[in-house]
Write a structure and sequence with these properties.
The protein has four domains: 3-102, Rossmann fold (3-Layer(aba) Sandwich), CATH 3.40.50; 131-200, Dna Ligase, domain 1; 206-448, D-amino Acid Aminotransferase, Chain A, domain 1; 452-494. An eight-stranded antiparallel beta sheet has the order 13-12-9-10-11-14-19-18, sandwiched between helices. The N and C termini lie far apart (58 Å). The radius of gyration is 25 Å and the shape is globular. Helix 7 (140-150) crosses helix 8. The protein is built from 17 helices and 20 strands. Helix content is 38%, strand content 23%. The longest helix is centred in the last third of the chain and has 31 residues, at 446-476. The chain is an alpha+beta fold.
Length: 495
């Protein structure tokens, strides 16, 4: 494989290209008109504009991306995450065009892309499941019967897609019909598929996911877990590896279950098997993501393995160069997603120009981003600016290093989630490890950040006033003997 086209944008495109360059592989960027001056476009060896800013006129044009690949003699296509990364039809079309798709087979993608077929495949290996319906619910009456048998509260979930869309918590039978209709409507609108199913609602769960790697020779290993319980609107904001609550025994059991899920679909490449962990540390299979995850850097930090390189090697037909017994956890890593959102205003997206943009640096700090100072945050795509990652010898050091890195990050021009992430990292529920997916609901309110901002403004104003007063005093003393107020003069010079 001598040339790879990266069918994505932003930080993930740039991150993939860096690994390709280390492997001596040329890269091709495809970009929309909105990304013409983006760093990933400049970094690639070749770049082709494929359309206007909206993703359905650019990054989702699979046929056009394949056409560009054939014209430029591309050997493989890496989809990153999002856009076409879990589109089985696109993967099949790439393969049909004689190009290598850097990811699992279309068949594995299709099986695991539908939550119901994924659950059916996992069930063959006796993997623990959340109690609920066996398949899709086709009518309100059928749904009511299943909900009663399952026991309230229950969760109505879309079979296709993710990101919290087509998902409704139902507390009692009286509200079931309305909530089911809303879930079906939302699922149909978001994914073109209104199929839904029912699961028992697990109170106070933790979201734990296991990274797996497979090759075309039947070898599959797990690279331990990531804790992804700090979420807003069912979407992750902070992730860490390893989890602070898993015992070695539970970790091994979850890892082996994840490997079996991979075996159920003959998985090749990098994939993630997601689980819910209840308050009694019972775990249940949730779903599988057949792509690279946003939070993959924390796994790379604790294992020392470049997941993108492993994806490329697997796509080339190479055997895994390591076994399960070779893998060990080293230290602790945390990732915070830096979104252009205002956490003090219900995490509403915030667009604008990055007037100031200075990345944190130093030992154990990694920044995966796709922006430079002076660039605009486009309205057409996910508002993530960067992924900020810390690494330490243990969890405490990783937390302290992340707080320092957040304080060193300078972003002026848009509101970001950095202040919220700092709030979480300092909260006793997080530092103690005693938290779940309801952290935001239980411990956070936008007013908390507003108060912090107000306090910062007051402190800054007091400091400025003191500075002005001291400087004025210095001017008045100019004609006096320089040695008379020597200590005050030294202080003024420092200020």
């Amino acid at each position: 494989m001598n040339k790879i086209l990266v069918a994505n944008r932003g930080e993930i495109a740039l991150r993939i290209m860096r690994s390709c360059r280390e492997m001596g592989i040329k890269t091709v960027a495809v970009y929309s008109e909105a990304d013409r001056n983006a760093p990933f476009v400049k970094y690639a060896d070749e770049a082709v504009c494929i359309g206007p800013p909206p993703s359905n006129q650019s990054y989702l044009l699979g046929d056009k991306i394949i056409e560009v690949s054939k014209k430029l003699g591309v050997d493989g296509i890496h989809p990153g995450y999002g856009f076409l990364s879990e589109n089985a039809g696109f993967a099949a079309a790439v393969k049909k065009a004689g190009i290598i798709f850097i990811g699992p087979s279309p068949e594995a993608m299709k099986m695991m892309g539908d939550k119901l077929s994924a659950k059916a495949a996992a069930k063959k290996y006796n993997i623990p499941m959340v109690p609920g319906s066996e398949g899709a619910i086709t009518s309100v009456e059928e749904g009511k019967k299943t909900a009663v048998l399952t026991g309230f509260p229950i969760l109505i979930k879309a079979s296709a897609g993710g990101g919290g869309k087509g998902m409704r918590i139902v507390e009692n039978i009286e509200e079931f019909e309305e909530q089911m209709k809303l879930a079906v409507s939302e699922a149909a609108s978001a994914f073109g598929d209104g199929s839904v199913f029912i699961e028992r609602y697990v109170a106070g769960p933790r979201h734990i996911e296991i990274q797996i790697l497979g090759d075309s020779h039947g070898n599959i290993v797990y690279l331990f877990e990531r804790e992804c319980s700090i979420q807003r609107r069912h979407q992750k904001v902070i992730e860490e590896a390893p989890s602070s609550v898993l015992t070695p025994e539970i970790r091994k059991a979850m890892g082996e279950c994840a490997v079996n899920v991979g075996k159920a679909c003959n998985y090749e490449g990098a994939g993630t098997v997601e689980f819910l962990l209840d308050e009694n540390k019972n775990f249940y299979f949730l779903e599988m993501n057949t792509r690279l995850q946003v939070e993959h850097p924390v796994t790379e930090m604790i294992t020392g393995i470049d997941l993108v390189k492993e994806q490329i090697k697997a796509a080339r037909g190479e055997k895994l160069s390591f076994t399960q017994s070779d893998l060990k956890i080293h230290g602790h890593s945390i990732e915070v997603r830096v979104y252009a959102e205002d956490p003090s205003n219900n995490f509403l997206p915030d667009i604008g120009k990055l007037i100031t943009y200075k990345r944190p640096q130093g030992l154990g700090v990694r920044v995966d981003d796709g922006f430079e100072e002076g660039m605009d945050i486009p309205i057409y795509y996910d508002p993530m600016i960067a992924k900020l990652v810390s690494f330490g010898k243990d969890r405490e050091e990783a937390i302290n290093r992340m707080i320092r890195a957040i304080d060193d990050y300078r972003i002026i021009g848009v509101e970001t989630t950095l202040s919220f992430c700092r709030f979480v990292l300092n909260h006793k529920a997080f530092t103690s490890g005693n938290f779940d997916t309801h952290f935001v609901k239980q411990h956070f309110s936008p007013e908390m950040l507003v108060v912090e901002k107000d306090d910062e403004v007051v402190i800054a104003a007091l400091f400025a006033a003191k500075l002005t007063e001291t400087k004025q005093a210095s001017v008045k003393n100019k004609d006096q003997d320089p040695l008379e107020n020597n200590s005050k003069w030294k202080v003024n010079r420092l200020l």
